[in-house]
Amino acid sequence: YGKITFVDLAGSERLKESLSEGNARKETQAINKSLFTLGQVISALAQGKEGRHVPYRNSKLTQLLQESFGGSSLCLMVTCISPASAFLEESLNSLNYAHKAMNIQNRPIVRLDEQQKVLQDLKAENAMLRRELES
Prior knowledge:
Blueprint: H1 15-18, H2 23-47, H3 60-64, H4 88-102, H5 114-134
Helix pairs in contact: 2-4
C-alpha cells in the first residue's frame, strides 16, 4: 500500500503587502506559522542527529508531512522561484528550504499487506524453482 501527499507551499504571506483583515489575516498568520515550523522541522532533520527533538506537532502541516520528511517514505520537493528581482528574498528563502531538505536522509521501506507479502514470496519461490529446473 502507499500514500501520496501533494502540498502546495505558496510562499510566505506578508501582512503589509496583502492588507489582510479579519479571517484572511488569521489565515495568513497560520500559513506563516506552518511555514516557520516546517523550516524548523527541515533544519532539525537536515542536521541528522539521532534522538534530536523534531517539532512535528507544532503545526498541522508538519504533522501531515511527518511520514514524508524523516520517515520511511520517499519524498520529492519541487521548489519554484522567480527570476524577478522584486522576489529575490522569497526566492532565496525557497532555495534555502530546498538546500536543507536535500540533506534529509530517509530510509524508504516497501510496505506490503499480508496478501501481497504471500504473493511476492510465492513468486520468488516459483522463480527460484524454475531456475533449478533449467540448470
